[in-house]
Amino acid sequence: MTRPITAGVDGTEESLAALAWAAREAVRRDRPLRVVHAWRFQSHEGVAAADRDTQDGWVRGATAEAVRTVTERHPELTVSVDVVEGHAVESLVAAAADAELLVLGSRGHGAVVGFLLGSVGQQVIAAAARPVVLVRAGDRATTEASGRDVVVGQQGGPQDSAAALRFAFETAAARRATLRAVRAWTLPPVFAYSPGSMKLLDDAGGLEPYEKKALTEALAPWRERFPAVPVTEHIEMGSAGQVLLSLADRAQLMVVGRRAHHTAVGARIGSVAHGVLHHAPCPVAVVPHA
Fold first, then answer.
1. What is the mean pLDDT of each run of 10 residues along the chain (290 residues)?
2. Does domain 5-139 have CATH number 3.40.50.620?
3. How far apart are CA 248 and CA 55, in angstroms?
4. With contact defined as beta carbons under 8 Å apart, do 93 and 38 qualify?
5. Residue-wise over 155-173: b if at least 16 C-beta within 10 A, else e?
6. How far apart are CA 213 and CA 158, in angstroms?
7. What is the pTM of this model?
8. Domain 143-288 CATH (choose: 3.20.20.70, 3.30.2350.10, 3.30.450.70, 3.40.50.12370)
């Protein structure tokens, strides 16, 4: 089965930008586009024609109009539409399960809004089994053709960021873009030193050469699989979130991995993904660890 690129829409400017982004990505990857509108009936006293069937008609009409714009722009694209009455989180997580990736809209440099109210966006990202891309309302196709890099964060060993690296290489290959792989590092606390770790650092020639070697090793299998993708290795001292955000203005897409943490007050997606989602001006892809 060919997984579609799935876009969640709700009629807002940011969700229409997400739909446009998803359509372009579906064309690049030669995949079908699926459009999902999750809504819930709400009673409005004193508002004429506000019954369930009428609201359903409004939703379907707005969705059809948005899809019409996409099909006129990309007549070769295969598009399916699902208007679902139900809870936004459950509907979107279910849609993501069958998708190559799920694309949602977000507004400004704050929390995700629209049908994603409060913690809903975070819940979708934390629960989705597939990559989720967040697109700002002002996103334009010209950004993708501007020569900007696809930027991906790499942490830990080769397997720790394998899913994010794969997604980033696939995206860069589809866009014929340069991939900038970023590894941030900080000085470890004194108590973290051990004879074993000191030997590894000595063998590598110091902390920064050690981090560069780790990044090179993590990239090696993906460079072999995608030899046509130009790669820039970026090693910088600082927190991962700060380093990635310093590059966001020059990125056409930012890719970060996530390992969801479930707590008594809800799901948490990690400080790096959280910071980038809230502050990066470019689209952000959050990829669950394998």
1. 92 91 97 92 60 79 92 96 89 94 75 42 86 89 85 93 97 97 77 50 63 95 98 93 93 89 58 86 91
2. yes
3. 39
4. no
5. beebebbbbbbbbbbbbbb
6. 11
7. 0.87
8. 3.40.50.12370
